[in-house]
Write a structure and sequence with these properties.
The complex is a heterodimer.
Chain A (H helix, E strand, L loop, with lengths): L5 E10 L2 E11 L4 E5 L6 H8 L7 E6 L2 E2 L5 H6 L2 E4 L11 H6 L12 H14 L15 H14 L4 E5 L7 H16 L3 E6 L2 H7 L2 E6 L2 E7 L5 H9 L16 E12 L2 E12 L3 E5 L6 H9 L6 E6 L2 E3 L4 H6 L2 E4 L3 H5 L6 H6 L7 E2 L2 E2 L1 H14 L16 H13 L5 E5 L7 H16 L3 E6 L2 H7 L2 E6 L2 E2 L3 E2 L5 H8 L3 H4 L7
Parallel strand pairs in A: 3-8, 3-9, 6-7, 7-8, 13-20, 13-21, 16-19, 19-20
Antiparallel strand pairs in A: 1-2, 1-4, 4-5, 9-10, 11-12, 11-14, 14-15, 17-18, 21-22, 21-23
Helix pairs in contact in A: 13-14, 14-15
Chain B lengths: L1 H8 L1 H26 L7 H17 L4 H25 L4 H23 L26 H4 L5 H19 L1 H11 L1 H6 L4 H27 L11 H11 L4 H24 L5 H19 L19
Classes of the chains: A alpha/beta, B mainly alpha.
């Protein structure tokens, strides 16, 4: 093995009472892909922010090619060849791709920007690594995947030899993520060294040469990808043995929600067409598909924030018109929205306020909010659903993604809803939180709730759903029974090929 | 109808437009630069007043006119530094600090003026900038009268608009300014210090505002009175939005507003039976209408009015 390009030695960092990094040491070789695996709050991002100069460590040192890197200045890190792709992109939506990339790369008082040379250099890099992008496009007009490409190109443009990616797949669809990892492997082959932060076991196993596991701010293990397994990594990451909950057989009850030939048109575009399904009490119906195929309109339609343009909807056997949010809440439909920060909770408001917002009349008398009852309700959710990191009065923004999701779940499930619409309920959560969310959904199913699970994650759908329908271009496939479906067949269905997919078993 | 055409065809109207537009061009460019870097500067009204006062006072005390402009610019820069200290270093609300600067600078102007010039029946005067004779151009028929009879600061204002457009869109420092106003975190991650950039933009921007004020006392008029800025600063703030934060369009916007203003002044004299206050209102009403149309497509700098605090996401 050649000398490491990067050595991290005994890095410690404390934020208040929280020891975010505790004596972490690791090394990175040329052409190597290392995954930094850990749950949210394990200290991965802190470590990488120290490496990139955003934070100053309390102790420890970093060496690049054997030369010590001054801490606390991104400029020095960039000059030493470190590039960082942030989870929340460091880009400006109103500037062009080229402008985003060129910022800070020239002497400030030059009389003219060298755009021609910069464009040529960008083009050369984008060809070398297969990262195609339009240099003159306004950044805000690009898709999230393309924006990430710009972020990577920006690092490469600064001649980065060490690339750090903070949860690069958190914002990507499955297909985009696969493409990204192909690109990253190719970069490593061309001599770059990469560290990517992740809490997803699948991608860590698939893309990394070596895996460094962090837990509670400490490095707990280091494994070669070839010598370990998902089960071992999960245990190392969480610190105890965890298994995702499994569905027990159950007898579904009556149909509670039925859609017949439902269509939704938005701005002249058919977002949903001829959608039909029937949802039984005590079952989980999984709607699987690649993102952007109509999942969002479907969830919004059933949550009362979107009106259908055609078709019938039957609730508990009765035809219903267009539902308002209040109708939906009154009908006992619980909702877990896809965008938990945007639609699920209001970050600047207190936990108790978020807990009661959708059923405020029940917590109000004479025009005043019954704060005491609302606080008690929020307290009960926090206790029963193991929401950590806040009390009823603290601001919701301070909760981690997983804990916010538990709050939203608790707010819905504590009311014993008859129907639960769960859109991407485990997206972006760490393994521990995924297990908790899945367990709660299965518990609700056992208690007789009808669950409509909309997800892009095939494994999630297979493990939770009784029956599965694919959503493609706003249409739903016929349902298949989960036990009789395999990943290959579901993959075909997600590609819109459900004549082949559904021949195995139709089940209603 | 024919009176309208007469008004439009008079060289005097077009000369007045440029004269009325000049302080607006300076002020709008100053506010635009500051906002491009992410800092709203509502101190503009007060800074213009102070620039008008201090520039005049300097000249009244014997310095030449260009030194008077320079004195105003330096005073404006100081108020800019104050605004930057409050909004960039301390990260306070830009609205509140800007209004504070306006109130402070306006009152302070009057105070300094009264210390220097005790109450007198007629305000003392200076000899202002004279129209610049440009060989050949000034003697052109119509065009010479309409365009080339301005004082030097007017040409300076137009030149600065062009320079600012070039700097913002063609140089690294301009890109740094825009990045600081769009996403200061990204600027920092690329090794550009957004705090310094914002300081620079606010200080230079305030200097331009003060020069806009000084134009009123050193070119448009020849004396100072405390209410003479008369809301021009606020018009500039609106013109920045109208221009979608582009110097070229800011120039156009200032000229358009000046056109409305010059036009209504002349209408007052020819139309009878309508209270003149109605005409006084028209430029503002038309400005609001123009703003409503233009600003809908405007791309606001994303980090405008957001204080930047290092290490906080």
């Amino acid at each position: 093995m050649t000398a490491p390009v990067l050595e991290i030695d005994g890095i410690s960092k404390r934020f208040g009472d929280n020891l975010a990094n505790d004596g972490i040491s690791m090394a990175l070789a040329k052409g190597e892909v290392v995954a930094l695996l850990g749950e949210n709050g394990a200290g991965k991002t802190t470590l990488m922010n120290i490496l990139f100069g955003h934070y100053v460590p309390d102790a420890g040192s970093i060496r690049i090619d054997g030369v010590e890197l001054p801490t606390g200045t991104p400029r020095a890190a960039i000059r030493a060849g470190v590039g960082m792709v942030h989870q929340h992109f460091s880009l400006a939506a109103n500037l062009t791709v080229l402008e985003n990339i060129m910022t800070g790369t020239e002497k400030l008082w030059r009389l003219r920007s060298g755009t021609t040379g910069a464009r040529r250099k960008l083009l050369a890099i984008s060809e070398r690594f297969g990262l195609k992008v339009d240099a003159d496009a306004r950044l805000g007009d690009l898709s999230v995947g393309e924006q990430q490409r710009v972020e990577i190109l920006k690092a490469l443009y600064n001649d980065a030899r060490i690339l750090i990616l903070d949860e690069p797949t958190a914002v990507l669809t499955n297909i985009e993520a696969e493409r990204l990892f192909t690109t990253l492997r190719d970069m490593a082959r061309q001599g770059l060294s990469l560290i990517f932060i992740s809490h997803k076991l699948d991608e860590v196993m698939a893309a990394a040469d070596r895996i460094v596991v962090l837990r509670g701010g400490r490095m707990v293990a280091e494994r070669k990808a070839a010598d370990t397994s998902k089960a071992e990594l999960a245990e190392l990451m969480i610190g105890r043995r965890v298994t995702r909950p499994v569905r027990e057989p159950s007898a579904p009850g009556a149909v509670v929600l039925e859609a017949r030939n439902v269509g939704v048109r938005i701005g002249g575009v058919e977002r949903l067409q001829n959608v039909g399904f029937s949802l039984h009490a005590g079952e989980v119906l999984g709607i699987v598909g690649v993102s952007g195929n109509g999942q969002a309109p479907l969830a919004r339609l059933l949550s009362g924030t979107l009106a259908r343009t055609s078709g019938d909807l039957l609730l508990y056997g009765q035809p219903v018109g267009n539902l308002s949010v209040a109708d939906v809440v009154d009908a006992g439909i619980g909702r877990i929205p896809e965008d938990r920060n945007g639609e699920g909770a209001i970050g600047e408001m207190a936990i108790w306020e978020n807990a009661v917002l959708e059923r405020l009349p029940a917590y109000a008398s004479a025009g005043l909010v019954d704060r005491k009852a609302a606080m008690a309700f929020a307290g009960a959710i926090i206790e029963q659903f193991d929401v950590r990191g806040g009390n009823p009065a603290s601001r919701t923004r301070l909760l981690s993604g997983g804990n916010m999701q538990k709050l939203i779940l608790g707010r819905n499930l504590s009311q014993r809803p008859r129907i639960l619409i769960a859109a991407q309920p485990a997206r972006g959560l760490d393994e521990g939180a995924v297990v908790a969310v899945h367990a709660r959904i299965l518990e609700a199913r056992k208690a007789g709730t009808a669950v409509l699970l909309i997800s892009e994650d095939l494994d999630e759908v297979i493990s939770l759903a009784d029956r599965i329908q694919a959503i493609v271009g706003g249409r739903l496939s016929p349902p298949v029974v989960a036990e009789q479906a395999d990943a290959r067949q579901l993959g075909l269905m997600m590609a819109g090929d459900w004549d082949n997919g559904s021949e195995v078993a139709h089940a209603v | 109808m024919s009176t309208l055409i007469d008004i439009l065809a008079s060289a005097g109207l077009w000369a007045a437009i440029l004269r009325i537009a000049t302080p607006l061009i300076f002020g709008t460019l100053g506010a635009l630069l500051s906002e491009r870097a992410g800092v709203l500067n509502l101190g503009i009204e007060g800074v213009m007043t102070f620039g008008a006062m201090i520039g005049w006072l300097a000249v009244y005390n014997g310095v030449d006119l260009w030194t008077g402009i320079l004195v105003a610019a330096c005073a404006g820069a100081l108020f800019g530094a104050l605004h930057a200290l409050l909004t960039v270093t301390l990260g306070l609300s830009q609205h509140v600090c800007g209004l504070g600067v306006t109130l402070f600078a306006s009152s302070f102007s009057y105070y300094v003026f009264r210390l220097a010039v005790p109450v007198a029946g007629t305000p003392p005067t200076i000899i202002p900038f004279q129209p610049l004779e440009i060989p050949v151009l000034s003697s052109l028929p119509f065009l010479g009268q309409a365009v080339f009879t301005q004082t030097a600061p007017t040409y300076l204002a137009i030149a600065i608009a062009l320079v600012m457009a070039y700097v913002l869109f063609r140089t690294p420092v301009g890109l740094a300014v825009r990045m600081a106003g769009e996403n200061p975190h990204a600027a920092e991650a690329q090794g550009v210090n957004p705090m310094k950039v914002r300081y620079g933009a606010v200080i230079v921007g305030s200097a331009l505002m003060a020069v806009g004020g000084a134009f009123l006392t050193l070119s448009a008029f020849n004396s100072f009175f405390p209410t003479m800025v008369q809301g021009r600063g606020w018009i500039c703030i609106a013109l920045v939005v109208f221009s979608s934060w582009r110097p070229g369009r800011a120039l156009f916007g200032a000229l358009l507003f000046a056109f409305f203003d010059a036009f209504q002044l002349r209408l007052q004299t020819v139309v009878e039976g309508v209270p003149y206050q109605i005409f006084l209102m028209t430029p503002y009403i038309l400005s609001i209408a123009a703003l409503a149309i233009m600003a809908r497509r405007a791309r606001v700098p994303q980090a405008l009015m957001q204080p930047y605090r290092r290490g906080e996401r």
